[in-house]
Amino acid sequence: MKTKSLLLAALSFSAVTFAQKKEIKSAEKTVESGSYAEAQTEINGLEGMMGQMDEKEKEYYYFVKGRAYLGGEENKNADDLLKAMEAFSKVSEFNDGDKYGDEAMNYKQTAMNAVISSAVDDQNAQKYDAAANKLYTLYTLTPKDTSYLYFAASNAVNGQNYDTALDYYSKLKDLGYTGIETKYTAKNKENGQVESFPSEQQRDLFVKSGSHEDPKTEVTESRSGEIAKNIALIYIQEGKNEEALGAIKDALAENPDDDALLRSAADVYLKMGMTEEYEATLNKVIAKDPNNPGLYFNLGVGAADSGNTEKALGYYRKALEIDPNYAGANLNIAALMLGKDKEIIEQMNSLGNTKADNKKYEELKAERLKLYNDAVPYLEKATSGDKPNIEAVRTLYNIHVQLGNDEEAKEYKTKLDAMQG
Protein backbone atom coordinates (compact mmCIF):
# COMPACT_ATOMS: atom_id res chain seq x y z
CA MET A 1 0.00 0.00 0.00
CA LYS A 2 2.85 2.31 0.86
CA THR A 3 4.56 1.53 -2.44
CA LYS A 4 1.35 2.29 -4.28
CA SER A 5 1.05 5.68 -2.48
CA LEU A 6 4.60 6.60 -3.45
CA LEU A 7 3.94 5.61 -7.03
CA LEU A 8 0.77 7.71 -7.13
CA ALA A 9 2.67 10.68 -5.67
CA ALA A 10 5.38 10.34 -8.30
CA LEU A 11 2.78 10.13 -11.06
CA SER A 12 1.02 13.17 -9.62
CA PHE A 13 4.28 15.16 -9.53
CA SER A 14 5.05 14.19 -13.13
CA ALA A 15 1.62 15.38 -14.17
CA VAL A 16 2.14 18.76 -12.48
CA THR A 17 5.59 19.11 -14.07
CA PHE A 18 4.20 18.24 -17.50
CA ALA A 19 1.39 20.78 -17.04
CA GLN A 20 3.86 23.54 -16.12
CA LYS A 21 6.05 22.83 -19.12
CA LYS A 22 2.95 22.80 -21.32
CA GLU A 23 1.88 26.20 -19.99
CA ILE A 24 5.35 27.68 -20.53
CA LYS A 25 5.26 26.29 -24.06
CA SER A 26 1.85 27.93 -24.54
CA ALA A 27 3.29 31.28 -23.42
CA GLU A 28 6.17 30.84 -25.85
CA LYS A 29 3.74 30.27 -28.73
CA THR A 30 1.91 33.44 -27.69
CA VAL A 31 5.23 35.32 -27.86
CA GLU A 32 5.91 33.95 -31.33
CA SER A 33 2.48 35.12 -32.44
CA GLY A 34 3.43 38.68 -31.44
CA SER A 35 0.90 38.95 -28.60
CA TYR A 36 3.46 40.08 -26.05
CA ALA A 37 1.08 41.56 -23.44
CA GLU A 38 -0.93 38.32 -23.43
CA ALA A 39 2.29 36.31 -23.14
CA GLN A 40 3.34 38.42 -20.13
CA THR A 41 0.05 37.62 -18.42
CA GLU A 42 0.46 33.89 -19.15
CA ILE A 43 4.05 33.67 -17.93
CA ASN A 44 3.39 35.75 -14.81
CA GLY A 45 0.53 33.41 -13.95
CA LEU A 46 3.09 30.62 -13.55
CA GLU A 47 5.22 32.50 -11.01
CA GLY A 48 3.44 30.90 -8.06
CA MET A 49 4.38 27.46 -9.38
CA MET A 50 8.13 28.14 -9.45
CA GLY A 51 8.68 26.02 -6.34
CA GLN A 52 7.43 22.96 -8.20
CA MET A 53 9.65 23.46 -11.26
CA ASP A 54 12.95 21.67 -11.80
CA GLU A 55 16.14 23.40 -13.01
CA LYS A 56 15.39 22.86 -16.72
CA GLU A 57 11.88 24.27 -16.40
CA LYS A 58 13.10 27.33 -14.52
CA GLU A 59 15.67 27.98 -17.25
CA TYR A 60 12.89 27.66 -19.85
CA TYR A 61 10.52 29.84 -17.78
CA TYR A 62 12.91 32.78 -17.52
CA PHE A 63 13.86 32.51 -21.18
CA VAL A 64 10.22 32.78 -22.27
CA LYS A 65 9.56 35.55 -19.72
CA GLY A 66 12.48 37.54 -21.13
CA ARG A 67 11.15 37.18 -24.66
CA ALA A 68 7.65 38.22 -23.56
CA TYR A 69 8.96 41.47 -22.10
CA LEU A 70 11.51 42.08 -24.86
CA GLY A 71 8.71 42.20 -27.39
CA GLY A 72 9.32 43.18 -30.99
CA GLU A 73 11.86 45.51 -32.57
CA GLU A 74 9.54 48.48 -32.10
CA ASN A 75 9.37 48.05 -28.31
CA LYS A 76 10.51 51.28 -26.57
CA ASN A 77 9.07 50.54 -23.12
CA ALA A 78 12.12 50.77 -20.88
CA ASP A 79 10.38 49.14 -17.92
CA ASP A 80 9.54 46.07 -20.00
CA LEU A 81 13.01 45.99 -21.52
CA LEU A 82 14.63 46.08 -18.08
CA LYS A 83 12.37 43.24 -16.93
CA ALA A 84 13.46 41.33 -20.03
CA MET A 85 17.12 41.88 -19.14
CA GLU A 86 16.50 40.70 -15.59
CA ALA A 87 14.78 37.54 -16.83
CA PHE A 88 17.51 36.77 -19.39
CA SER A 89 20.14 37.25 -16.66
CA LYS A 90 18.45 34.53 -14.57
CA VAL A 91 18.43 31.97 -17.39
CA SER A 92 22.06 30.97 -16.74
CA GLU A 93 21.35 30.56 -13.00
CA PHE A 94 19.37 27.39 -13.70
CA ASN A 95 20.57 24.23 -15.44
CA ASP A 96 23.78 26.23 -16.08
CA GLY A 97 21.91 27.82 -18.99
CA ASP A 98 22.74 24.73 -21.06
CA LYS A 99 19.82 25.01 -23.46
CA TYR A 100 18.95 28.70 -23.65
CA GLY A 101 21.95 30.48 -22.09
CA ASP A 102 23.70 31.68 -25.26
CA GLU A 103 20.47 32.77 -26.94
CA ALA A 104 19.38 34.56 -23.74
CA MET A 105 22.62 36.56 -23.65
CA ASN A 106 22.05 37.72 -27.23
CA TYR A 107 18.49 38.77 -26.40
CA LYS A 108 19.75 40.51 -23.26
CA GLN A 109 22.19 42.56 -25.35
CA THR A 110 19.33 43.56 -27.67
CA ALA A 111 17.28 44.72 -24.67
CA MET A 112 20.27 46.55 -23.22
CA ASN A 113 20.90 48.45 -26.45
CA ALA A 114 17.26 49.54 -26.54
CA VAL A 115 17.40 50.76 -22.91
CA ILE A 116 20.61 52.69 -23.59
CA SER A 117 18.95 54.33 -26.60
CA SER A 118 15.95 55.23 -24.42
CA ALA A 119 18.23 56.71 -21.73
CA VAL A 120 20.06 58.80 -24.34
CA ASP A 121 16.72 60.08 -25.63
CA ASP A 122 15.75 61.05 -22.06
CA GLN A 123 19.08 62.79 -21.56
CA ASN A 124 18.71 64.75 -24.80
CA ALA A 125 15.18 65.73 -23.75
CA GLN A 126 16.58 66.86 -20.36
CA LYS A 127 14.62 64.13 -18.56
CA TYR A 128 17.63 63.52 -16.38
CA ASP A 129 15.93 61.63 -13.53
CA ALA A 130 14.43 59.12 -15.97
CA ALA A 131 17.81 58.64 -17.66
CA ALA A 132 19.56 58.21 -14.32
CA ASN A 133 17.06 55.58 -13.16
CA LYS A 134 17.40 53.55 -16.37
CA LEU A 135 21.18 53.70 -16.33
CA TYR A 136 21.37 52.74 -12.67
CA THR A 137 19.11 49.75 -13.29
CA LEU A 138 21.37 48.76 -16.19
CA TYR A 139 24.29 48.86 -13.77
CA THR A 140 22.50 46.60 -11.26
CA LEU A 141 21.82 44.10 -14.06
CA THR A 142 25.38 44.31 -15.45
CA PRO A 143 27.46 45.23 -12.36
CA LYS A 144 30.76 44.63 -14.12
CA ASP A 145 30.08 47.59 -16.42
CA THR A 146 30.48 50.41 -13.91
CA SER A 147 30.30 53.04 -16.65
CA TYR A 148 26.49 52.85 -16.40
CA LEU A 149 26.76 53.89 -12.75
CA TYR A 150 29.00 56.80 -13.78
CA PHE A 151 26.55 58.05 -16.39
CA ALA A 152 23.65 57.56 -13.96
CA ALA A 153 25.48 59.83 -11.50
CA SER A 154 26.10 62.46 -14.20
CA ASN A 155 22.41 62.53 -15.10
CA ALA A 156 21.43 62.77 -11.44
CA VAL A 157 23.67 65.86 -11.14
CA ASN A 158 22.12 67.40 -14.25
CA GLY A 159 18.69 66.75 -12.75
CA GLN A 160 19.86 68.44 -9.52
CA ASN A 161 19.10 65.23 -7.63
CA TYR A 162 22.21 65.68 -5.52
CA ASP A 163 21.53 63.06 -2.85
CA THR A 164 21.20 60.37 -5.50
CA ALA A 165 24.27 61.65 -7.36
CA LEU A 166 26.31 61.61 -4.16
CA ASP A 167 25.21 58.03 -3.48
CA TYR A 168 26.25 56.93 -6.99
CA TYR A 169 29.56 58.82 -6.93
CA SER A 170 30.37 57.37 -3.50
CA LYS A 171 29.74 53.88 -4.88
CA LEU A 172 32.08 54.62 -7.79
CA LYS A 173 34.76 55.86 -5.41
CA ASP A 174 34.44 52.75 -3.24
CA LEU A 175 34.71 50.57 -6.36
CA GLY A 176 37.91 52.35 -7.36
CA TYR A 177 36.35 53.33 -10.69
CA THR A 178 38.60 55.39 -12.98
CA GLY A 179 36.86 55.06 -16.36
CA ILE A 180 40.25 54.65 -18.06
CA GLU A 181 39.85 52.81 -21.35
CA THR A 182 42.23 51.75 -24.09
CA LYS A 183 40.75 52.46 -27.52
CA TYR A 184 42.00 50.76 -30.67
CA THR A 185 41.16 52.62 -33.88
CA ALA A 186 42.00 52.60 -37.57
CA LYS A 187 40.74 54.49 -40.61
CA ASN A 188 38.50 52.68 -43.10
CA LYS A 189 40.10 53.25 -46.53
CA GLU A 190 36.79 52.95 -48.35
CA ASN A 191 34.79 55.62 -46.49
CA GLY A 192 37.54 57.49 -44.62
CA GLN A 193 35.82 56.94 -41.25
CA VAL A 194 37.83 56.20 -38.10
CA GLU A 195 36.49 52.98 -36.58
CA SER A 196 36.98 51.40 -33.16
CA PHE A 197 37.89 47.76 -32.53
CA PRO A 198 37.40 45.60 -29.41
CA SER A 199 41.05 44.53 -29.35
CA GLU A 200 44.46 45.42 -30.74
CA GLN A 201 44.68 42.04 -32.47
CA GLN A 202 41.40 42.51 -34.36
CA ARG A 203 42.36 46.01 -35.46
CA ASP A 204 45.75 44.82 -36.68
CA LEU A 205 44.10 42.05 -38.71
CA PHE A 206 42.01 44.64 -40.57
CA VAL A 207 45.11 46.80 -41.16
CA LYS A 208 47.06 43.80 -42.48
CA SER A 209 44.17 42.90 -44.79
CA GLY A 210 44.53 46.32 -46.41
CA SER A 211 41.00 47.57 -45.65
CA HIS A 212 42.17 49.96 -42.90
CA GLU A 213 45.11 52.26 -42.23
CA ASP A 214 46.52 54.68 -39.65
CA PRO A 215 46.15 52.42 -36.58
CA LYS A 216 46.12 54.24 -33.24
CA THR A 217 45.97 53.23 -29.60
CA GLU A 218 44.60 55.83 -27.18
CA VAL A 219 44.20 55.70 -23.42
CA THR A 220 41.36 57.86 -22.13
CA GLU A 221 41.75 60.22 -19.18
CA SER A 222 40.91 59.08 -15.67
CA ARG A 223 37.50 60.17 -14.36
CA SER A 224 38.55 59.84 -10.71
CA GLY A 225 39.36 63.56 -10.49
CA GLU A 226 35.97 64.52 -11.86
CA ILE A 227 34.24 62.17 -9.42
CA ALA A 228 36.14 63.61 -6.44
CA LYS A 229 35.36 67.14 -7.62
CA ASN A 230 31.66 66.40 -8.04
CA ILE A 231 31.46 64.81 -4.61
CA ALA A 232 33.07 67.92 -3.15
CA LEU A 233 30.83 70.29 -5.15
CA ILE A 234 27.71 68.45 -3.99
CA TYR A 235 28.88 68.86 -0.39
CA ILE A 236 29.43 72.59 -1.05
CA GLN A 237 25.95 72.81 -2.59
CA GLU A 238 24.58 71.34 0.64
CA GLY A 239 26.66 73.71 2.78
CA LYS A 240 28.94 70.92 4.00
CA ASN A 241 32.30 72.60 3.38
CA GLU A 242 34.29 70.41 5.76
CA GLU A 243 33.05 67.27 4.01
CA ALA A 244 33.95 68.87 0.66
CA LEU A 245 37.53 69.53 1.77
CA GLY A 246 37.75 66.04 3.24
CA ALA A 247 36.67 64.46 -0.05
CA ILE A 248 39.34 66.36 -2.00
CA LYS A 249 42.10 65.72 0.56
CA ASP A 250 41.32 62.00 0.66
CA ALA A 251 41.47 61.81 -3.13
CA LEU A 252 44.75 63.76 -3.29
CA ALA A 253 46.27 61.57 -0.58
CA GLU A 254 45.72 58.55 -2.81
CA ASN A 255 46.71 60.24 -6.10
CA PRO A 256 48.83 63.34 -5.32
CA ASP A 257 50.18 63.67 -8.88
CA ASP A 258 46.97 63.01 -10.81
CA ASP A 259 46.54 66.01 -13.17
CA ALA A 260 42.77 65.66 -13.48
CA LEU A 261 42.43 65.44 -9.71
CA LEU A 262 44.69 68.45 -9.13
CA ARG A 263 42.61 70.51 -11.58
CA SER A 264 39.44 69.37 -9.84
CA ALA A 265 40.88 70.26 -6.45
CA ALA A 266 41.76 73.72 -7.77
CA ASP A 267 38.17 74.18 -8.96
CA VAL A 268 36.87 73.30 -5.50
CA TYR A 269 39.30 75.65 -3.76
CA LEU A 270 38.27 78.46 -6.12
CA LYS A 271 34.60 77.73 -5.46
CA MET A 272 35.26 77.97 -1.71
CA GLY A 273 37.27 81.19 -2.01
CA MET A 274 40.51 79.48 -0.86
CA THR A 275 42.77 81.55 -3.13
CA GLU A 276 46.14 80.44 -1.72
CA GLU A 277 45.26 76.75 -1.95
CA TYR A 278 43.86 77.33 -5.43
CA GLU A 279 47.06 78.96 -6.69
CA ALA A 280 49.33 76.40 -5.03
CA THR A 281 47.40 73.51 -6.56
CA LEU A 282 47.20 75.01 -10.03
CA ASN A 283 50.91 75.83 -9.94
CA LYS A 284 51.56 72.09 -9.50
CA VAL A 285 49.65 71.52 -12.72
CA ILE A 286 51.56 74.33 -14.46
CA ALA A 287 54.86 72.73 -13.46
CA LYS A 288 53.84 69.70 -15.58
CA ASP A 289 52.37 71.74 -18.42
CA PRO A 290 54.18 75.12 -18.43
CA ASN A 291 53.15 76.11 -21.96
CA ASN A 292 49.41 75.88 -21.40
CA PRO A 293 47.96 79.42 -21.57
CA GLY A 294 44.64 78.22 -20.15
CA LEU A 295 46.25 77.43 -16.79
CA TYR A 296 47.56 80.98 -16.41
CA PHE A 297 44.20 82.30 -17.55
CA ASN A 298 42.52 80.28 -14.78
CA LEU A 299 44.95 81.71 -12.23
CA GLY A 300 44.05 85.17 -13.49
CA VAL A 301 40.35 84.45 -12.98
CA GLY A 302 41.05 83.28 -9.42
CA ALA A 303 43.11 86.38 -8.63
CA ALA A 304 40.44 88.66 -10.12
CA ASP A 305 37.71 86.95 -8.10
CA SER A 306 39.69 87.57 -4.93
CA GLY A 307 40.05 91.28 -5.83
CA ASN A 308 43.75 91.19 -6.72
CA THR A 309 43.66 93.04 -10.03
CA GLU A 310 47.40 93.45 -10.51
CA LYS A 311 48.09 89.75 -9.93
CA ALA A 312 45.25 88.87 -12.32
CA LEU A 313 46.73 91.14 -15.02
CA GLY A 314 50.10 89.45 -14.52
CA TYR A 315 48.62 85.99 -15.06
CA TYR A 316 46.62 87.10 -18.10
CA ARG A 317 49.73 88.67 -19.66
CA LYS A 318 51.64 85.44 -19.00
CA ALA A 319 48.93 83.57 -20.92
CA LEU A 320 49.35 86.05 -23.80
CA GLU A 321 53.12 85.47 -23.83
CA ILE A 322 52.36 81.86 -24.70
CA ASP A 323 49.42 82.61 -27.02
CA PRO A 324 48.98 86.28 -28.04
CA ASN A 325 45.58 85.47 -29.55
CA TYR A 326 44.11 83.83 -26.43
CA ALA A 327 40.68 85.47 -26.55
CA GLY A 328 39.74 85.03 -22.89
CA ALA A 329 42.94 86.65 -21.61
CA ASN A 330 42.63 89.57 -24.05
CA LEU A 331 39.02 90.13 -23.10
CA ASN A 332 39.65 89.96 -19.36
CA ILE A 333 42.61 92.35 -19.51
CA ALA A 334 40.41 94.85 -21.33
CA ALA A 335 37.64 94.31 -18.78
CA LEU A 336 40.01 94.97 -15.86
CA MET A 337 41.35 98.09 -17.54
CA LEU A 338 37.88 99.43 -18.31
CA GLY A 339 36.82 98.67 -14.77
CA LYS A 340 38.57 101.89 -13.79
CA ASP A 341 36.20 103.87 -16.02
CA LYS A 342 33.43 103.95 -13.40
CA GLU A 343 35.78 105.44 -10.80
CA ILE A 344 36.94 108.14 -13.24
CA ILE A 345 33.34 109.06 -14.15
CA GLU A 346 32.42 109.36 -10.47
CA GLN A 347 35.35 111.71 -9.92
CA MET A 348 34.35 113.82 -12.94
CA ASN A 349 30.75 114.05 -11.73
CA SER A 350 31.84 115.16 -8.27
CA LEU A 351 33.73 118.22 -9.53
CA GLY A 352 32.43 121.79 -9.33
CA ASN A 353 32.86 124.71 -11.73
CA THR A 354 36.02 126.31 -10.37
CA LYS A 355 39.08 126.79 -12.54
CA ALA A 356 40.87 124.04 -10.61
CA ASP A 357 37.88 121.71 -11.01
CA ASN A 358 37.73 122.39 -14.74
CA LYS A 359 41.42 121.61 -15.07
CA LYS A 360 40.97 118.39 -13.12
CA TYR A 361 38.00 117.49 -15.29
CA GLU A 362 40.09 117.79 -18.48
CA GLU A 363 42.84 115.67 -16.90
CA LEU A 364 40.34 112.97 -16.00
CA LYS A 365 38.79 113.16 -19.44
CA ALA A 366 42.21 112.63 -21.04
CA GLU A 367 42.87 109.73 -18.65
CA ARG A 368 39.55 108.18 -19.61
CA LEU A 369 40.26 108.46 -23.34
CA LYS A 370 43.73 106.95 -22.83
CA LEU A 371 42.08 104.08 -20.96
CA TYR A 372 39.86 103.44 -23.98
CA ASN A 373 42.75 103.59 -26.42
CA ASP A 374 44.81 101.19 -24.29
CA ALA A 375 41.95 98.69 -24.11
CA VAL A 376 41.22 98.69 -27.87
CA PRO A 377 44.11 96.37 -28.97
CA TYR A 378 43.08 93.72 -26.44
CA LEU A 379 39.43 93.92 -27.48
CA GLU A 380 40.40 93.68 -31.14
CA LYS A 381 42.34 90.47 -30.41
CA ALA A 382 39.31 89.11 -28.58
CA THR A 383 37.17 89.66 -31.71
CA SER A 384 39.67 88.41 -34.31
CA GLY A 385 38.73 84.71 -34.30
CA ASP A 386 36.02 82.82 -36.16
CA LYS A 387 33.62 83.32 -33.25
CA PRO A 388 34.16 86.88 -31.94
CA ASN A 389 32.85 87.69 -28.48
CA ILE A 390 29.68 89.77 -28.87
CA GLU A 391 30.35 91.79 -25.70
CA ALA A 392 33.81 92.68 -26.99
CA VAL A 393 32.27 93.87 -30.28
CA ARG A 394 29.65 95.92 -28.42
CA THR A 395 32.35 97.46 -26.20
CA LEU A 396 34.50 98.35 -29.20
CA TYR A 397 31.56 100.06 -30.84
CA ASN A 398 30.85 102.13 -27.72
CA ILE A 399 34.54 103.02 -27.28
CA HIS A 400 34.92 104.25 -30.86
CA VAL A 401 31.77 106.34 -30.42
CA GLN A 402 33.33 107.93 -27.33
CA LEU A 403 36.64 108.45 -29.14
CA GLY A 404 34.89 110.03 -32.14
CA ASN A 405 36.20 107.37 -34.53
CA ASP A 406 33.20 107.37 -36.84
CA GLU A 407 34.48 104.85 -39.40
CA GLU A 408 35.51 102.32 -36.76
CA ALA A 409 32.25 102.84 -34.87
CA LYS A 410 30.29 102.18 -38.07
CA GLU A 411 32.32 99.03 -38.75
CA TYR A 412 31.66 97.55 -35.32
CA LYS A 413 28.00 98.60 -35.40
CA THR A 414 27.61 96.56 -38.61
CA LYS A 415 29.29 93.56 -36.96
CA LEU A 416 27.15 93.92 -33.87
CA ASP A 417 23.92 94.12 -35.87
CA ALA A 418 24.91 90.99 -37.83
CA MET A 419 25.68 89.05 -34.63
CA GLN A 420 22.37 90.08 -33.09
CA GLY A 421 20.49 89.01 -36.18
What this model shows, in words?
- Pfam families: TPR_19, TPR_2.
- Keywords: Repeat, Signal, TPR repeat.
- Residues 1-19 form the signal peptide.
- Residues 6-16 have low confidence and may be disordered.
- Among the domains are: 12-125, Serine Threonine Protein Phosphatase 5, Tetratricopeptide repeat (Alpha Horseshoe), CATH 1.25.40; 128-177, no CATH class; 325-420.
- The protein contains 20 helices and 3 strands.
- The longest helix has 31 residues, at 2-32.
- The protein has 421 residues and is mainly α.
- α6 (128-141) packs antiparallel against α7, α15 runs antiparallel to α16 and α19 (390-403) packs antiparallel against α20 (406-419).
- A hairpin with a 5-residue loop joins β1 (182-188) and β2 (194-197).
- It has a 3-stranded antiparallel β-sheet, covered by helices on one side.
CATH fold annotation of the domain at 12-125: Serine Threonine Protein Phosphatase 5, Tetratricopeptide repeat
Oligomer category: single chain
Average pLDDT, rounded to a whole number, is 87
Let me know the number of strands: 3
Largest sheet: 3 strands, antiparallel
Percent of residues in helices: over 70%
Strand order of the largest sheet: 2-1-3
Strand content: under 5%
Q: Name the CATH architecture of the domain at 12-125.
A: Alpha Horseshoe
In terms of structural class, how would the helical and strand content be classed? Answer: mainly alpha
CATH class of the domain at 12-125: Mainly Alpha
Q: Distance N terminus to C terminus?
A: 98 Å
Radius of gyration: 33 Å
The secondary-structure element order is HHHHHHHHEEHEHHHHHHHHHHH
What is the tally of helical segments?
Answer: 20
Unreliable spans are 6-16
Cα shape: elongated
